Structures are given as C-alpha cells and as structure tokens.
Amino acid sequence: MYFPRVESDQLYTWSDKNENQPAAALRRRRQALLRQLPPLKEILRGSLIERYKRCGKPGCKCADGPGHGPKYYLSVSHPGLRPQMDYVPQESHAQITGFIANYHRAREILEAISEINRELLRRREAL
C-alpha cells in the first residue's frame, strides 16, 4: 500500500505563490508532484461506512447492545443514482482504507498540477 504523508501546505493551490515563481521552478514542482502520485492501481473512490446490525433473536446480546459488528461497506455515489454499497471483509478493511486515502491524495496532487499548468499557460510558457 502507498500513502505517504505530505502536508497540504506542501501542495500548490492557487495563490500568489505561483505568480512569483519562475517557470523553471514551477516545472520542477510539477515533476516533484508527479513523483508523489500513488500507484493508480491502488486507488478507490468512495466512503467506508461502519454498521452494526441486530439479528432479531430475542436472547441475543445484540438486542441490548449496539448490534453485531462492526461491518464495513464501501459506499460510492454517482450523479442521479442511489449510492451503491459493497461489503468490505474485515481482513480487507485496512487495504481499502489505504486505497481511499490514495484517491484523496491523488485528487489533491492533480489539482496542484492543474494549477501549475494553468499558471504556465497564463504566462504563455511551454507546458
């Protein structure tokens, strides 16, 4: 699994920082960001949902407690559709958590790269 911790302030978001950087520095920063991308095969979009279920048996401990669980489900939403839920086995929980973190990390990095490319375009520099 891949998910190095890089603080958000190390990523470029649109600000005056980009305007004051020479084009060569922006290109170097873009290359550094590309190296930080997680492996694309280890990316998963969605949210993990933790659920506890009651079985309905009168003498079961779940009747008075939180229920059986935790059970994990991956929830993925698509525009115009109901969220899709997929069961995540307990032994896959850590891996799926990492894949979801990689997805969020990749989105942050791609946004930063896009802002650098936009600044280079604004300057009429070679991308």
Question: What does this protein structure show overall?
Answer:
The chain is an alpha+beta fold. It contains three helices and three strands. The chain has helices at residues 16-20, 23-36, 93-122, and strands spanning 47-53, 68-76, 84-88. Strands 1-2-3 form a three-stranded antiparallel sheet. α2 (23-36) runs antiparallel to α3. The longest helix is centred in the C-terminal third of the chain and has 30 residues, at 93-122. The radius of gyration is 21 Å and the shape is elongated. The mean pLDDT is 88.
List the helices and strands and how they pair.
Elements: H1 16-20, H2 23-36, E1 47-53, E2 68-76, E3 84-88, H3 93-122
Antiparallel strand pairs: 1-2, 2-3
- Topology as H/E string? HHEEEH
- Order of strands, widest sheet: 1-2-3
Helical content, roughly?
25-40%
Q: Estimate what percentage of residues fall within beta strands.
A: 15-25%
Distance between the termini: 31 Å
Q: Count every beta strand, where a strand is a DSSP E run of 2 or more residues.
A: 3
Write down the overall mean pLDDT.
88
- Unreliable spans are none
- General form: elongated
What is the alpha-carbon Rg in Å? 21 Å
Query: Structural class, judged by helices and strands?
Result: alpha+beta
Tally of separate helices = 3
Question: How would you sum up the major sheet?
Answer: 3 strands, antiparallel
